[in-house]
Amino acid sequence: MPMSEVEQTPVPSVAAEKSATPAVKAILGRKLGMTQIVKPTGELVAVTVLEAGPCPVLQVKTLENDGYNAIQLGFCEAKKKNVSQPMIGHFEKAGVAPVRWIREVRLPGVDGFQAGQDVLVTNFAPGDIVDVSGTSKGKGFAGVVKRHGFKGGPATHGQSDRERAPGSLGGQQPQRVFRGLRGPGHMGAEWITVQCLEVVGVDAESNVLLIHGAVPGPDGGFVSVKQTTRPRRAKKIPVVAAAAAKKAAKPAKADKK
């Protein structure tokens, strides 16, 4: 996807003249597609383009009242006729326009947060490591080879129609299928999280985040982005490069005469 198309993507409108929240590394957004960019180091990388925020704060939950600290965020303006009356009252209490998607973000503390504030994409910066959650693409009903990576049966010795069959489900006893046995069934359409992705670009004017790598879901799907709590593993040096570096580090041997 050319970057010119990303910059022209419409941004959901929200109520004007709202204050920004304290810096919090969490935001809701929508997947626009994938493209590639060249980093300042000259490396060509594939990135996912996300339309992120602005996300109004709908509710602030505290340890005293709710048992935990969190803020409730919304994203993507919705038509009032498509919103239930209880939710309309919830939005009016916060002083924001109705939204389509709502998620909570748990925080150590909620001091400084108020309903009606906006969480902006400017809270992120290139180099941040984030976890991105979303609903994976639905694959429909799938067999065990596609769903679980089963090897399948032999294609010869009379098994002309059993190449992708699951095989035996058990012996004569206990004459039932154990709970959790892997088998065919519905695949995909699950809430999953991809961890430790790098933010490589932030466009505050267009509310766009560029994430190195792929994120769950189809184009247009909603995603949640938050700072990771898992330390990122160091990149492994290729064997050839490691051997060359080790050879270069060895002192040169003096010539024998």
* Major β-sheet profile: 6 strands, antiparallel, barrel
Number of helical elements = 5
Q: How large is the share of residues in beta strands? A: 25-35%
Q: Give the low-confidence spans.
A: 1-17
- The secondary-structure class comes to alpha+beta
As laid out across the biggest beta sheet, the strand order is 1-2-11-10-7-12
CATH A-level architecture? Beta Barrel
Number of domains: 1
Explain the overall architecture.
There is one protein chain. The chain is of the alpha+beta class. The chain has a single domain (3-141, 187-249), classed as Elongation Factor Tu (Ef-tu), domain 3. Helices cover 14% and strands 33% of the residues. The chain is built from five helices and twelve strands. It has helices spanning 3-7, 63-66, 85-94, 144-148, 239-249, and strands at residues 26-38, 44-52, 55-61, 70-77, 99-106, 118-119, 129-135, 140-142, 185-187, 191-203, 208-212, 222-227. The strands form three sheets. Strands 1-2-11-10-7-12 form a six-stranded antiparallel β-barrel. The protein has a four-stranded antiparallel β-sheet with strand order 5-4-3-6. The longest helix is centred in the last third of the chain and has 11 residues, at 239-249. 20% of the residues are buried. Mean pLDDT is 85; it is low at 1-17.
